[in-house]
Amino acid sequence: MRKLCFCLAILMCSAVAANAGTKAEIFGGYQFTRLDGGPNMNGWNGAVTGDFAHFLGVTADFSGVYGSGLSFQTYTFGPEVHAHLPLIKPFAHALFGGARASSGGVSSSGFDMMVGGGVDVGHGPLAFRVAQFDWMLTRFSGFTDHNNVRVSSGIVLRF
Fold it and tell me: What is the DSSP string of 74-114?
């Protein structure tokens, strides 16, 4: 299911970018997550963004963190607003989708929402995501946890 969502997101972003004749970006990097009441976790974060206006795009974001016998993955999609300045690109997004938590062979899936943003530095096809900060809300089996924080940093490839 996650592979299907990932493929659909890449196709969606590619189609939007191709139809508008504008840019697309791929981000990959490190992620630190603090789940409310849980351990600090480290892992990866990846995203694909397709622009369909100079300041507006759609993002598909995937991530996974691991620690203390727990794994937590997210797959979210949503709009992004950004400013293409000469050297930096500040952005903000609202992402909605799902999450999966596993511990000791037991797993649970639920709803995930992230609101945040960050800044990329660089000109041309390669940039560095200095920081991306997201506030994250998760809902598993009727239990809502809204004090989660995610911070990411990494490399951005622009097309």
Answer: EEEEEEEEE---SSEEEEEEEEEEEEEEEETTEEEEEEEEE
| Domain carrying residue 31 | 2-158
Q: How far apart are CA 99 and CA 119, in angstroms?
A: 25
- Total tally of structural domains belonging to the chain: 1
Q: What is the pTM of this model?
A: 0.84
The CATH number covering residue 91 comes to 2.40.160.20
Tell me the three state secondary structure of residue 7. helix
Contacts of 4 (CB under 8 A, 6+ apart): none
What is the mean pLDDT of each successive set of 10 residues along the chain, which is 159 residues long?
Answer: 50 48 86 88 97 93 94 97 93 97 92 97 94 95 87 96
**Per-residue confidence (pLDDT) for residue 37, from 0 to 100:** 78
Q: How far apart are CA 76 and CA 63, in angstroms?
A: 9
Structure tokens at 32: 């630190």
What's at 19, amino acid-wise?
Answer: N
Q: Do the beta carbons of residue 114 and residue 141 sit within 8 Å?
A: no
